[in-house]
Protein: SRR1-like domain-containing protein
Amino acid sequence: MLASAKNLKPENTSFNGEWTSVPTGLGSINFPTLEPLPQQGIPWPSRHNVVDPERQLNLMQEMQICINKLKHSQFYHTFLDQIQNTQIVDNFVRALDSELKMQMVIYGIGSIESDEPCRFQLSLAILMKRKFSWIGEIEVFDPVLSTTETRVLEALGCSVLSVNEQARRKALKPTFFFMPHCDIRLYNNLLQENWQAELLNHTVVFGNSFKLHEQIASKYTRSYSAEAKHVLGVQKFMNEFRIKTFSDEWFGGAFGDSSLHFFYLDPEIELQCIQAYFFSV
Ligand SMILES: C[S@@+](CC[C@H](N)C(=O)[O-])C[C@H]1O[C@@H](n2cnc3c(N)ncnc32)[C@H](O)[C@@H]1O
Structure:
């Protein structure tokens, strides 16, 4: 089955900085306009290699401000209530299986030096790690990260990957993929790489609502549906919880349209079932 799925691998493409507005029944959603992605697995040279201690210090201070602002916000308290409710806890426990820790992999965080929403997103990941002992090490990759940003991420306790995995990381152990507002093809790459019950059951994705992607797929182009094939195909085996935001706060921009996604597949029946559903999309 995996061999067949690989034949459907989407063309390598990525966000080019522009957005396409797509009308939906729930209002208008912005989706990234796509262009070719760089190749996977090649060591990634940071685009801005200059080490500037003053910039590092400024960014560290800005990060501390964002972490504090988020920590004391209504959004964060609601988020904590939400993810500690029984339903979501049960899903995390199932994804953890018998492990005590769930590593966190952050893809597509964006430029934390240029954009406040990106700093708030990183702040949420860091606050989660501080709050929950079951969150393990944090690894981060985004091709836009500068040396300054890399140093600050490391000072905050994260490891920055030097290789572009194109989100094709196998969840050989429980893994929380924190991917706020990523290109649909990164979510799709991730699911394709983990297209087996054992791997998907260990995978948790924080990112743009997969259900919203399903709702807009019919209104968007055929090529979009092809690019989103695994995101659409996994819906039958998924629990999705929308992250509550408040339109009058700054956090809407950072966490709007975001959801937590958990997957549940029975290893005994999964192969036929998921294959049949996948090819009927
Ligand atoms: C739409 S932006 C979202 C940025 C930020 N999270 C936000 O909400 O504003 C998508 C991000 O994905 C990053 N990206 C593109 N290809 C990637 C890859 N292969 N791995 C990780 N991140 C990638 C881009 O550089 C960009 O920062």
